[in-house]
Amino acid sequence: MRTDPRGTDPRTLGTATGGETVPTVPPAATAVRRTTVDVTALLERGRTLATPVLRAAIDRLAPPMDTVAAYHFGWIDAQGNPADGDGGKAVRPALAVLSAEVTGAAPETGIPGAVAVELVHNFSLLHDDLMDGDEQRRHRDTVWKVHGPAQAILVGDALFALANEVLLELGTVEAGRATRRLTRASRALIDGQAQDISYEHRDRVSVEECLEMEGNKTGALLASASSIGAVLGGADERTADMLEKYGYHLGLAFQAVDDLLGIWGDPEATGKQTWSDLRQRKKSLPVVAALAAGGPASERLGEMLAADAKSSDFENFSEAEFAARAALIEEAGGREWTAEEARRQHTIAIEALDAVDMPDQVRDRFAALADFVVVRKR
Amino acid sequence: MRTDPRGTDPRTLGTATGGETVPTVPPAATAVRRTTVDVTALLERGRTLATPVLRAAIDRLAPPMDTVAAYHFGWIDAQGNPADGDGGKAVRPALAVLSAEVTGAAPETGIPGAVAVELVHNFSLLHDDLMDGDEQRRHRDTVWKVHGPAQAILVGDALFALANEVLLELGTVEAGRATRRLTRASRALIDGQAQDISYEHRDRVSVEECLEMEGNKTGALLASASSIGAVLGGADERTADMLEKYGYHLGLAFQAVDDLLGIWGDPEATGKQTWSDLRQRKKSLPVVAALAAGGPASERLGEMLAADAKSSDFENFSEAEFAARAALIEEAGGREWTAEEARRQHTIAIEALDAVDMPDQVRDRFAALADFVVVRKR
Fold first, then answer.
1. Which regions in chain B score pLDDT beneath 50?
2. For residue B64, which residues of chain A lie inside 8 Å, CB to CB?
3. For chain B, what is the HEC assignment?
4. pTM of the shown model
5. B131 in contact with A at a CB cutoff of 8 Å?
């Protein structure tokens, strides 16, 4: 009999969070109100406010680190010519400036927080790409590929230090509190990467372990992004904690969607190969949930992946072979469970918001960003 | 005619700082008073106060990072058995707890600062050893050799984050100020490593460039160590700045002595090979000063090193060949200039101390530590 990987039948869990059947659509009750929020404008606002300050911070780096960092951010190409790279979705800066408004402060109050969070995020990308041997990021060669491993280490270190510098030079008590919280998130990020690396060498990873790792790698920094502006605006500890809770679960929802896109995403939208995570043998949520589910499809998948791990021909697998694995994951319930998990985490995030006193307009915007994260296609 | 690499005749400089002829002995006038200071006990105090707190901080790291860090610090061997490794001279913790006493606070006030500085120092060692490809440190295989490059990156990152965590969880305004200063020093450390790497690819490095790099790599963190306890004890900005100045120039003196030991040190005392820095083609102070001095020996040295850089046989050079290069460096004045530079920096450090109001006993101890750094044999 099929059992839920977390010890609860997924159908019950589905019911508990509202029994929705289309997992990536937000709960209907509140979504109506949120349709008035222009998410694109919200993301654009975060980007517009944060980018000049981020650029000014990068300009402080000693050569050649400033150039290497500018390449990483997509502002120049490998030859040093100006470029207009894909800066990503910019969810974090949008959250950081929005969170300042929780306390009634201007969005600008959140800018140093937005910049610090982006610096920490990019520090981790630089180091993780090197550790994981990833050669491509945002459709371009990674820094270690272009500028060598030493520069990837060095510039990552510099961005990490710069993150604290940008906050602490504000010289306020609030900046000290914000840095302390960001430091805790940075440690979680590092823990998550350590877990990710150790899981690679293991045959089996439990759903709990996978969620813990994703909470560290994605949840912790979105928690920072969602609260740092408020902390800089003088929010009390409880408010900051609840905003962190919103961001943490938003991060888990984000990652669940990412894991779905990593297998079933449209290559044109994601910019990744088909079956991307399967090609990388990533033990993502759909995979670990399918393996933990039990039943014939789950067992067949387990045997297949065990054989793949020893196969010398894996690099030459055809589309059909990956499609077969994806079908088994779906048949074992891994896809459905992960979509449901995204909803569960989305619901917890929204509930955390409701526990914080803030202007309605700000709450709607937070909720709309959460909806965006769950319904996005890339 | 031989000219001083910094544009001043070294004999004049020697006279300016007291005209001493034995460069590694401190000025006689104050040394008498300092003989009452037990430097060994002072170093032991710093070590004894800081080590348990450092160990507790490392214990917070998630596995396997705690083990990797414990190996790096010499607390366990590569197999995980308890070890009693060489923890180094422990000058930094001694300075940090001593600096707390400047403000009249107990030495214990400086402990979180001592631990944070040690964490930053070891973060940089972990990353630098990997970037530089160094296989040995403190007579043992480096972390990347034993545990792989990913662990060296990851644990370095974790130590860096932990440094800020240890300070910021104090939750005081002083801790925020201390973290800000430490962050600035960390960035200098990273700048110094960037310079070190870029100099490797160049034929010539000026004395100024070498001093700037050494100020970043060694001076900045000794500046932090010398002031962080005082900052935690509530010292004003000027006091902190002057203590940083003491530490920065102490660091330059320290590095000048290190550069002398790297060529002429007794292998039994240093634990390094004979002519260690020459074997690594290090552009250290004696080398760059000799090359900049001009004159027949300087020119001959320049030709030899240029030929060495292209030589495929460099790895098999005999003792006599390195001895010949060391003799040329000495003949060109590089050894004498560096010894004089150590004295100059020592003098500036002592003068900075004199500009700070502090108990006589504390001042004597700072001065004694400065003397120790300059006269040490390892």
1. 1-29
2. 194, 198
3. CCCCCCCCCHHHHHHHCCCCCCCCCCCHHHHHHHCCCCHHHHHHHHHHHHHHHHHHHHHCCCCCHHHHHHHHCCCECCCCCECCCCCCCCHHHHHHHHHHHHHCCCHHHHHHHHHHHHHHHHHHHHHHHHHHCCCEECCEECHHHHHCHHHHHHHHHHHHHHHHHHHHCCCCHHHHHHHHHHHHHHHHHHHHHHHHHHHHCCCCCCHHHHHHHHHHHHHHHHHHHHHHHHHHCCCCHHHHHHHHHHHHHHHHHHHHHHHHHHHHCCHHHHCCCCCHHHHCCCCCHHHHHHHHHCCHHHHHHHHHHHHHHHCCCHHHCCHHHHHHHHHHHHHCCHHHHHHHHHHHHHHHHHHHHHCCCCCHHHHHHHHHHHHHHHHCCC
4. 0.91
5. yes
